Amino acid sequence: MEEKQVMSIIAEDGSIDEVEVILPFEFKDTKKAYVIYTKNEKDENGNVTVYVASVDRSKEEPVLGPISDEEEWNKIKDLLREISKLEMN
Q1: Residue 86, SS3?
Q2: What angle do CA 75, 83, 88 make, to 5 degrees?
């Protein structure tokens, strides 16, 4: 069984969440890094909620940020669809 990878996220208010990393990845063309993670929360349909954040590694500790560019977000959604197809097979 694969060991879960956990990371701590420090919110702006100083609170700390332990979250499970699903997939860290980087787009080779842009060299931008991202992480898909979950707090293992379930929505009203029983699906686990996942989050995607950009990763800024220019600081001593990596900093998670929003994805505000629509083209960037579309590439991430395409990747998530591909992962979903692989998981279904």
Answers
A1: helix
A2: 145
CA-based R_g, the chain, Å: 14
Could you tell me the pTM of the whole model? 0.83
pLDDT in tens, 30-70: 899 999 999 999 999 998 899 999 999 898 888 999 998 99
CB–CB of 53/35 below 8 Å? yes
CA torsion 73-68-30-64 (nearest 10°) is: -100
Q: How far is 21 from 2, CA to CA, in rounded Å?
A: 12
User: What pLDDT does 72 receive?
Assistant: 92
Tokens read off for 72: 């960037």
Total domain count, the chain: 1
**Separation of alpha carbons 59 and 73, rounded Å:** 23
Give the 3-state secondary structure of residue 78.
helix
